[in-house]
Amino acid sequence: RKAFTLFNWWKGMDLDKLLGNLSTQLEQSWVVYISSSEILVYLEKVAGIPSEPKQDDPLMSLRMRHEAGKTGSRNHIKRIRLSLNKLIGVDQAKEVVKGAKQKATSPAEFLSSKLRDEVEEIRSTSAAASAPSLVGTAKDSGNVGLSVELPESIASNVELVHRILLTDPCDFDKLSWDGTDAHAAALGPCEFMASFSISQESSDGTPRSLEDVPQRIAQSMRYAFLNQSAQEARSGNFAPARDLLREMSEKMRSLLPNRQDLHSHISDADVMACKSIDDVVRITLRSSYLLANYLESAARASTTNDLIRHLEEFAASREDTTGSPPAEIPFGLESEELFALSSVAFVIYKAQVCSADISNYKLGQLAPLLHHGVGCEYERKQLKEAYGDYTVSTAAELQGMLSSTCGWIRSIQSRFGSAENLTAQSKVEQKLDFVKGRGFVDGILFTRTQLALPEVFSLDAERIGNIRNEAKCCVIASALVLHAGNICKLKSSELPALLSPGSEVEEAKRVLFNELRRKHFDQTELESNVTKSVYSLATAVIERDLSDGERDALSNHTNAVLRGNDPVLNLLDNRIQNYYKFACKWTKPVGSAPLGMKTGRSVLETGAPAPGVGSTKDVFIRSCLKEARKLGFGFVADDLIESSHMAHMVIGLACANYWDVFHTVLSA
Q1: What is the pTM assigned to this prediction?
Q2: Residue 132 clears pLDDT 80, i.e. is over it
Q3: DSSP 610
Q4: Which of these, 638, 661, 641, lies nearest to 649 by C-alpha position?
Q5: How far apart are CA 458 and CA 40, in angstroms?
Q6: Each residue of 456-495: b (16+ CB within 10 Å) or e?
Q7: Euclidean distance between CA atoms 96 and 85, whole angstroms
Q8: CA-to-CA distance for 489 and 54, rounded, in angstroms?
Q9: In 257-324, alpha helices (H)
Q10: 630 near 493, Cβ under 8 Å?
């Protein structure tokens, strides 16, 4: 009898625990159901029910979220109710559900009030942000004939749309309007103000590359303006300083169009009353506080806080009346006036970065719309406008519209068609592989004859050039590394393992690639600089100084590689084409794991990886990494994979957009 009682007690304890968990889940589901129902009613009241979904509706995502939340929570409540019916009976289950609903009422009302505030904030922000340049209309030339209306700022920017279409969905958050990585770190005050020290040589004494010229010109002009303004301020004329402060205030207010309560902190009245360096510092400090505490993300605010610290120390030193010697001017600048005005310029720069972050975020939100059909439709429309309606044309008519494209297809067909057993009746898959492999890789990326770039690649001329140059650098670097490993008695398979982040080998590899990518106008200079980089790489790998014999052998092999007389280079030159064919023809394996869904929290508490894979790009990288190592490119795999992924995207997009053109010519 004791055992039976103990068993019942143990069973009842488990049942109580189970009922407690179900009651908690039930209460949470009621909170979601009630709050979502109320907010949907509120949305209908303030915005009405849209006759059809609109991509530019600022409340669309909110409406979809709460509709999904209401449906999901209702289904969850039903499932829990059925479970309770089986555990404790229908009547008792009904009471439990009713009690959970009563407990959820108060939290749901609180949540609903917060959600209503969110709706109003979105509506006010959307109304303030609506401007002619950001809103597309049916009359916009870029939108005519499209199934979905695009904002004019997107529809008028053909290069931007093309760049978005070449971006993998996992990289949407890195998109920016100017083509740089949206996650790239902004300059800190030290780097920003150090640029005012204009010299013809870099800090390590090496000549600056030609790619730096536009940046150096911009720095020189900024320095000249601030230096002239500082001289004016030193003589008592603060008009240029007030103009700079007014620009800062305008930049700040543009970031806060609806926060009239904060506009008083950046009013023009204080700017117009500015008559001293102390006034400039005080106004700059106030704007810096506002920027760091209210506008910037935590990652961006660190550099602004760094400036605030220097400004506070500078202001405190000017207020010091103890007769102590004057403090050193921050960042080694020439004068206090130049530091104060440079600080204003830095805050303007950070406000521009903040504005760019907002624009880039909105761009990332539009990217999925372009990827799911609209972007390809847009690009086909642009080609029609430029060359004619190729979609209803015969091969002969296409020759008159897209002569370079047709000539490219026919040339590779005549050169490689018989070798690939390609006929007009071949399957689409075989023709597709032929265009990607023989056509794009052999006929464009690695062609040794002069070629008029096909019209369908008119937006990719620079990318194709970069891919060709990167492939060349990877082949040369791989040949040099293989020679270095052979001379230093290291297996080639051991070298990639030495490339840990921050290691000397990784740094030496970076220096070598920089030399190979840099433009050289003298062969002797190229050989000398690359040889030094190879010496440094070999020294980092074997962790000792090279002997005279090793240095001579490395020098001879390096010169042979750079002059194109090396057998290893010729071998790798053939292999690199096979690698790019693999990358360009690559398709995601059928039956592979589904893509992992991004969520706002970690679902698994054990630390084990979530099922599925990160993205299609992740699968591509793993496949290409294996192929690169097999072909002898393991040491340069990271750089090679990035380049081959761009090649894969370029030819993949061209085939998706213009396959009817390729197919018509191949079947003629």
Answers
A1: 0.71
A2: no
A3: P
A4: 641
A5: 48
A6: bbbbbeebbeebbebbebbbbbbbbbbbbbebbebebeeb
A7: 10
A8: 65
A9: 260-263, 268-272, 277-290, 298-319
A10: no
